[in-house]
Amino acid sequence: MQRFTISLQDELAEQFDTWISQRGYETRSEAVRDMLRAELERDKQQAAQSLHCVANLSYVYRFAQRELVERLARLQHDHHDVVVSTMHMQLDHEYRLETVMLRGTTAIVSTLADAICAERGVHHGHVNLVSVTEHLSHVHPHHEAHHQAHQEAHHEAHHEPHHNEHRHIHFKPTH
Question: Structure pTM?
């Protein structure tokens, strides 16, 4: 571990200490490390150096808006290999908050998140991307009859050859 010293104006140091206290950090060092990681992660993603990511996309939408629910469902279905899970909650009689968990290449995940947030009727869209590296990749046979039936239907619908194996990838967060 390396140590370094920084100088801050008194007012900035006081604001930083307040910020640290509000977030529950025990030391300035912990807060600075987290801030540096977050900024370096943003840089990496903007420079397209992060090949894979996991992400949480959250947005609010008017579920009664004409065809919006169908457009969102179609976008998610068209990216079934990226969309891992979706959950929504009713905010009131008009609006829902939806959260979508995504996994894949950073470019595809970012493009999908942007497309969903750009849909007319979607508000307050925000994506949190976390860069990951491929940790373990292996192929295993399908064992679940339901999953196999779903895959067969998908392959027939898309005229793809049916394989009785599934590629499974594990990811680890980058540090």
Answer: 0.61
